[in-house]
């Protein structure tokens, strides 16, 4: 090897060594001087990073009544590796758990990590936390972390408000904001407005001595970050009306949905049986949830959004409007009713006894089945084929918001069902059915089902004479009104405005007419327009249904009432609707006898409530 070649190799190694040394020095400088995160990590044995949970946003009703607030609570955290010489029984006595539960919780914490802190016991009361804080030095590896939990001053509107619980695993996987055991809105407004209500977490670094006692902030709080509280929300509901509706539905299954037609704001949303929302907070949440989950009456099930029923005779209003739009009936059109409609000896739709024939307004007043069977048949048979006629009819129905999701701000819902052509083609074969085959659609039966909120929205569309605003539950966030076009732009039905006059007059006659089906629920000084309905129920007594709006001109409230196993719509649903309307518009009740009948009524265990 030549001397020259050896010199070049030595220079290369000198260069490599010098470069490596320089990189190492720069890295050490960065770690020790510039990047403080390594310093925090190195001192982790004496520094605790404590999450500062923001206060969750408050929730108010439309008049500023506080519905949801917060109360202080504490989580007991544990770092398993730091546990030494623990007096287990003493700790169990303070936090009021037995040894079996202690072992279970500690095992769970070790599975998560022996080195990292995790939740040991959630939502300890202020009193227990104060007692524990005085002796925390006796229990190395444990410390308290402050948080808040919900409180419901009005003890009402549980299905609307929802509840907060441990963040689900599927949320943890897709949203890195949350950590294991964090709180999360599970249902109701707590769920649909979770990101608004939750706020932003902060962090605080605390120095602790070998006895696990806090010695104050690390580096005078230089590395701490403040929590940002969640935003407050104002709901559209009237809590006084909501509580009154819940009283009316006591000991009954069903729902009430009330909407302000001019805005789509939901005034009341009741599912019965209902419960106190405070039952699902704190350490009592799990046993209460399990008890209600197993309850045959299903108090956790939100009937106002998720139940699907046949609309019954209330749907005759839609068929009347479609018939007018399609020019197959007119105000003076009369149909004969011979205790029902007959197509053949094997196909008949029955009807109650009444004068015959009737015109359109009279058919609404007296709820004549034959009138609407004839109307439906004319609508479908106006077109060359049953398929064309049915599809045209179906498109009109869909324009009222039926058979589809309303795309509102509620956390849950179902679309209902307005049967498609494919549905009937599968059932009867293509070309194997005609209008008489599905004639019970004329009176809101067959395969047609809707949710109570869809029915209330349909009623609002009629009250507005041909348009509706998507029903929604939130009015303001952080004091600012929502300007979402989803809720501020009217959705038009396919029916011309001029056709609503006759139908609305017929709805008024339901209360004022000599033979009106809801004349006993009439109010002296308020013009109410409504329609009774009775939905067939194969599992027991039929369901009592009523939709109504008031006043007749410039309506302020539209609502749908479903009372399961309540029989005729005039027996239970119509009086409830009338009471709701008077309460909302005047703040008082004139027919106290009728009110007492409803308040004292019990249909929870009856199989034959029909009258």
Q: What this model shows, in words?
A:
- Helices cover 35% and strands 18% of the residues.
- The protein is of the alpha+beta class and 611 residues long.
- It folds into 3 domains: 3-35; 47-235, Penicillin-binding protein 2a (Domain 2), CATH 3.90.1310.10; 239-286 and 302-600, Beta-lactamase.
- Helix 10 packs antiparallel against helix 21 (573-586), helix 13 packs across helix 15 (369-381) and helix 14 (360-366) packs across helix 20 (500-512).
- The longest helix is centred in the N-terminal third of the chain and has 32 residues, at 3-34.
- The N and C termini lie far apart (116 Å).
- Mean pLDDT is 87; it is low at 37-45 and 606-611.
Can you give me a brief rundown of this structure?
The chain is α+β, with helices and mostly antiparallel strands and 611 residues long. The chain is elongated, with a radius of gyration of 33 Å.
Strands, helices and their partners?
Elements: H1 3-34, H2 37-42, E1 47-52, E2 59-60, E3 66-78, H3 88-95, H4 99-112, E4 118-124, H5 126-134, E5 142-151, H6 158-161, E6 164-166, H7 169-174, E7 183-185, H8 188-192, H9 194-197, E8 202-208, E9 214-217, E10 233-235, H10 239-248, E11 254-260, E12 265-272, H11 285-294, H12 303-306, H13 316-325, E13 340-342, E14 348-350, H14 360-366, H15 369-381, H16 386-398, H17 421-428, H18 452-463, E15 467-468, E16 474-477, E17 480-481, H19 485-488, E18 491-492, H20 500-512, E19 529-535, E20 543-550, E21 557-563, H21 573-586, H22 592-600
Parallel strand pairs: 2-10
Antiparallel strand pairs: 1-8, 2-3, 3-4, 3-5, 6-7, 8-9, 10-16, 11-12, 11-21, 13-14, 15-18, 16-17, 19-20, 20-21
Helix pairs in contact: 10-21, 13-15, 14-20
């Amino acid at each position: 090897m030549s001397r020259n070649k050896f010199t070049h190799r030595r220079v290369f190694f000198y260069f490599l060594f010098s470069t490596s040394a320089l990189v190492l020095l720069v890295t050490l400088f960065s770690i020790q001087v510039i990047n403080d995160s390594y310093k925090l990590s190195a001192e982790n044995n004496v520094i605790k990073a404590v999450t500062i949970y923001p206060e969750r946003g408050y929730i108010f009703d439309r008049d500023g009544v506080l519905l949801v607030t917060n109360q202080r609570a504490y989580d007991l955290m544990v770092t398993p590796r730091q546990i030494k010489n623990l007096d287990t029984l003493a700790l169990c006595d303070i936090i009021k758990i037995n040894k079996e539960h202690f072992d279970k919780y500690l095992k769970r914490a070790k599975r998560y990590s022996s080195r990292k802190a995790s939740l040991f016991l959630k939502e300890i009361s202020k009193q227990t936390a104060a007692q524990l804080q005085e002796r925390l030095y006796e229990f190395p590896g444990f410390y308290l972390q402050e948080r808040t939990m919900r409180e419901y001053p009005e003890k009402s509107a549980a299905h609307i408000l929802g509840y907060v619980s441990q963040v689900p695993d599927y949320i943890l996987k897709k949203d890195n904001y949350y950590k294991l055991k964090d709180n999360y809105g599970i249902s109701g407004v707590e769920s649909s407005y979770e990101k608004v209500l939750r706020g932003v977490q902060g962090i605080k670094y605390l120095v602790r001595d070998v006895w696990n006692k806090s010695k104050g902030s690390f580096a005078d709080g230089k590395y701490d970050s403040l929590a940002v509280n969640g935003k407050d929300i104002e709901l559209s509901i009237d809590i006084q009306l909501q509580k009154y509706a819940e009283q009316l539905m006591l000991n009954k299954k069903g729902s009430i949905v009330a909407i302000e037609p001019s805005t789509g704001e939901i005034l009341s949303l009741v599912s019965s049986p209902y419960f106190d929302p405070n039952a699902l907070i704190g350490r009592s949440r799990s046993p209460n949830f399990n008890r209600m989950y197993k309850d045959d009456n299903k108090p956790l099930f939100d009937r106002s959004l998720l139940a699907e029923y046949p609309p019954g005779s209330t749907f005759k209003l839609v068929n009347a409007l479609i018939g007018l739009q399609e020019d197959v009936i007119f105000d003076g059109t009369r149909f004969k009713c011979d205790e029902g409609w007959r197509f053949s000896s094997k196909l008949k739709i029955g009807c109650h006894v009444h004068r015959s024939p009737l015109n359109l307004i009279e058919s609404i007043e007296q709820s004549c089945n034959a009138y609407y069977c004839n109307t439906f048949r004319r609508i479908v048979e106006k077109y060359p084929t049953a398929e064309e006629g049915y599809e045209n009819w179906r498109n009109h129905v869909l324009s009222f918001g039926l058979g589809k999701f309303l795309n509102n701000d509620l956390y849950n819902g179902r679309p209902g069902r307005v049967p498609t052509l494919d549905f009937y083609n599968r059932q009867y074969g293509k070309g194997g059915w005609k209008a008489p085959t599905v004639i019970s659609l004329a009176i809101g039966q067959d395969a047609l089902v809707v949710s109570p909120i869809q029915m209330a929205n349909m009623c609002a569309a009629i009250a507005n004479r041909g348009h509706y605003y998507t029903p929604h539950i939130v009015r303001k966030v952080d004091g600012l009104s929502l300007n979402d076009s989803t809720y501020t732009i009217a959705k038009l039905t396919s029916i011309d405005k001029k056709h609503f006059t006759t139908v609305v007059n017929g709805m008024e006659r339901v209360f004022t007419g000599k033979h009106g089906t809801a004349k006993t629920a009439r109010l002296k000084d308020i013009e109410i327009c409504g329609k009774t309905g009775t939905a067939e129920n194969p599992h027991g007594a039929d369901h009592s249904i009523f939709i109504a709006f008031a006043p007749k001109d410039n309506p302020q409230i539209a609502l749908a009432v479903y009372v399961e196993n309540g029989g005729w719509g005039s027996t239970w649903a119509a009086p409830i609707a009338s009471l709701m309307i008077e309460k909302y518009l005047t703040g008082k009740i004139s027919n106290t006898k009728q009110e007492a009948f409803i308040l004292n009524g019990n249909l929870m265990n009856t199989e034959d409530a029909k009258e």
